[in-house]
Each structure stands twice: as structure tokens, then as C-alpha cells.
Amino acid sequence: MRQTFHINFIKNSKIFFCISLGIMLVCLVLNIFVFPTLVDIQFTGGTIIKYSYSGDLKPEDIEKTVNDTISESEGLKNDTISYSYSENLAKSEQDSNSKIVSLQFTGNKAVSVEDKTSITEALEKAYPDNTFKEASSSSVDASKGTNFFFKCLAAVILAAVLMIFYVAIRFRKIGGLSAGVMAVVALIHDLIIVYFVFAMFRMPLNDNFIAVVLMILGYSLNDTIVIYDRIRELRKKSSPKTPIGDIVNTSLNQCMVRTICTSITTIIAIGSVLVVSLIYNIDSIVSFALPMMIGLISGSYSSLCIAAPLWVMWRNHQSKKKAEEKDKKPSSKKKSKNTKASKTTKSSSKKVTLEKSENTSAES
Q1: Beta-carbon contacts of residue 124 (< 8 Å; ≥ 6 apart)
Q2: What residues are paired with 139 via a beta bridge?
């Protein structure tokens, strides 16, 4: 493979780390004070009601009608409601309704049939020419939503642990366990970036979030494994005295073209899907494609600029620690030799004094 880049990743590793930490810090501040995290009813529990309608209506008018109806209901007035709008791609020739409005109620109780009927009647009465119809309705219990969230979280943790074992076994000749741990650190970096994408773009955390996370973990790990494989090959060809930083720098520069080309190809494909979903206002596809694109960029960045430089820092730390231990051993040996020499000199001096005393006694 021909090397076309000459970037010193190891020397500039602190710059890369600061860039990632800076982005995360800014996003964290915005997430806390400006853009709080939205969680879908799949995790919190609640009800989603979708209505189809025709014509063009202002979202504010629809929301005002629904809110006025909810304020009169004892069962719904304490619930939090959010709205989303999209195109009705499943419409038939008999159904002329081309728009969809989704009402998402967050609460511990499902929306009753009476409340659904009152909302439907209020929309039909306020907009008789727009033919409002209930397209679908689904409810999730709060306890089931929480259980589903923890199961998804357990799946992500299990995937990370299996990745560590896989990298540790496959790359055991170059310190596989440390390589696997650093690869998972890079994956955590990608997971945090994907989370902030959902938060900053006001997309609720749902099953799309888990799907994007698992796909990014696999994609980023694949890039990292390719880099580790290249490091292992170059280490076999290099002399034992070659610094590990030089080997990793060469490997990263040689793998950079492949990583960039693969990422660009995948981003173009997902970007096409994103454009279509934006044109037709399909929120479920947008909440998958947009985080996926940014996650792909983050995955390529973390494989090149986070995982391998962190691994080199760890290896250098370990080698420095071993060198310090070796330096301590000779000094202890010298001390033992000195003590032995002092003991022998003391014993010899004792023998001399004894001989002198014997000679004086014999003379007397």
C-alpha cells in the first residue's frame, strides 16, 4: 500500500484529544441549558395518535385546537404533549389525505377512548374541509418502556465487552487487551457524539438511537481493526528497536486513504436517503440518517485520531514503567554486593585481630 500522507498523528495527538473534548464540552453545556434531551415514549411510556388530513394548515392552529381540548380533559391535562408533521406516503387513490400530524402524549396512563374521540371531534369541527381521520394509535406502558431502555443499554455494553475480547485475542502479539480497551474508548467517543446529535437537533431518543449506535460501533470498530492489522504487519517487518510511535504513524497514514474513501462513499449513500426524507418530511428516516452521517465522520476520526494514539500513549507508559523497574533492580543488587563486601571485610578484620592476639599470647 503506497503512503500518500505524512501526518504525525502521535505528535499531534493532544490537539486531537482537545478538539474532541472541546466539542463535547460545548455540546454538554448546550444540552443542559438550551437543548434538553427528548425521550420517546418507547422509553418513557405514553401514547402516540396519528391523524391524516388534506390541505395546508398552520401547525400553530392544529396545536391550539388540541391543547384547548386537552385542557378540558381531566385525564390528559397533566400530560406532556409534542407534535410532529410529515407526508402521508401510504395514501391510496380513495384517500386524498396527504399530511400526517402525530400527537405524542407522555404519561403513565394510556389515552382513553373518550379522550381520543373528543380530540378527533374537535379537529373535525374546527377544520371540516380538511377531512381529519385517525390513522393509527399506539400506547406503551411506562415500566415496559424503562425495561426496554435498559435492555438496549445492556446490548450496547455486551457488544463493547465482546469487542474487547475479540481485539484482545486477534491482536495478542501487539498487546491485544490494551488495544481492545482503547478501541472501546474510541467507541464511547462516537456514542457520545451520536447522543449529542440527537439532543442538538431536537430528535427524541428512541429505537433509532439504539440502531444508529450499534451500526456506528460496528463501523468504527471495523476501521480500528484495519489499522491494528496494518500495525501488526509493519511491526513484523520492522526492527525490534523501531519506536512504536513511528510504526503507528506509518500505519495510520497508509490506512487514511481507505478510511476516507469508504466514509465518503457511505456518507453519499446515506445523504441521498436523508435528502429524500427531508423533501417528504419523513421524521423517522431523518432521525436515523442524519445521526448516522455524523456518526460515520466521528467513527473515522476516532479510529485515526483517538484509538491508535491512545494505544501508543499506553504502550509508552508501560515501557517506561518497565524501564524504571529494571533500573531499580541493579541498584538493589549493588546494595547487596556492598553489604556482602562489608561483611567479608569485617570478618577478615576479626581474623587479623584474633591472629595478633594469639601471637602475643605465644610470645608471652
Answers
A1: 132
A2: 47
Contact 43/141 with Cβ under 8 angstroms? Answer: no
CATH number of the structural domain spanning residue 78: 3.30.70.3220
In angstroms, what CA-CA distances link 340 with 68, 331, 333, 344, 348?
96, 14, 11, 6, 12
Using a cut of 0.85, tell me whether the model's pTM lies above it. no
Distance of alpha carbon 2 from alpha carbon 250, whole angstroms: 10
- Chunk the chain into consecutive blocks of 10 residues (it has 364) and report each block's average pLDDT, rounded to whole numbers: 72 93 95 89 83 88 89 70 79 71 79 86 90 85 77 83 85 81 90 94 88 86 88 87 89 90 92 90 88 93 92 87 78 53 52 50 46
| Rounded distance between C-alpha atoms, residue 120 and residue 134, angstroms | 7
Q: Which residues does residue 105 pair with via DSSP β-bridges, in sequence order?
A: 47, 81
The single residue listed with the C-alpha cell 393509527 is: 136
Comparing C-alpha atoms, which of 85, 74, 90 is closest to residue 50? 85
**Domain interval for residue 303:** 13-39+144-320
